[in-house]
Automatic annotation (TrEMBL):
This is ABC transporter transmembrane region. Residues 63-130 form the ABC transporter domain. The keyword Transmembrane helix does not apply. It comes from Musa troglodytarum (fe'i banana). One of its GO terms (cellular component) is membrane. SUPFAM superfamilies: P-loop containing nucleoside triphosphate hydrolases. Keywords: ATP-binding, Membrane, Nucleotide-binding, Transmembrane. Coiled coil: none annotated. The keyword Mitochondrion does not apply. GO terms for molecular function: ATP binding; ATP hydrolysis activity; ATPase-coupled transmembrane transporter activity. It holds the Pfam family ABC_tran.
Amino acid sequence: MIQTWVIWNLCSLENGIISVERILEYTNIPSEPPLVIDESRPDHIWPSEGEIDLLNLQMPFILRGLNCTLFGGKKIGIVGRTGSRKSTLVQTIFRIIDPTVAHIFINAIDISTIGLHDLRSRLGIIPQDPIMF
């Protein structure tokens, strides 16, 4: 009887410790940049041209020194083998992932200087496998 009680309490303690570890992991997750930065809000018609300039884009183990210009109004395909991190480029443009070194400009505005809402609400993407719901 006492042995059952001890084992039960040890299991409960272990579950509690795991919960505390998860909470500590969540508290150590870096917060996202602000949604809106009042000092540097883009014009309401931004991006009017849609030109994206990637300058020296670097991501550890993924990209090294990528420089390119994606012109607005053009269809662009990003191709590569499965797992070759094609989606990382798109995640970087949407600032879901911040690169270690880079300057990304959309219509000559550095996207690191504007809020996430101003950026993400004005960009669109068509996924490879579109889903209708």
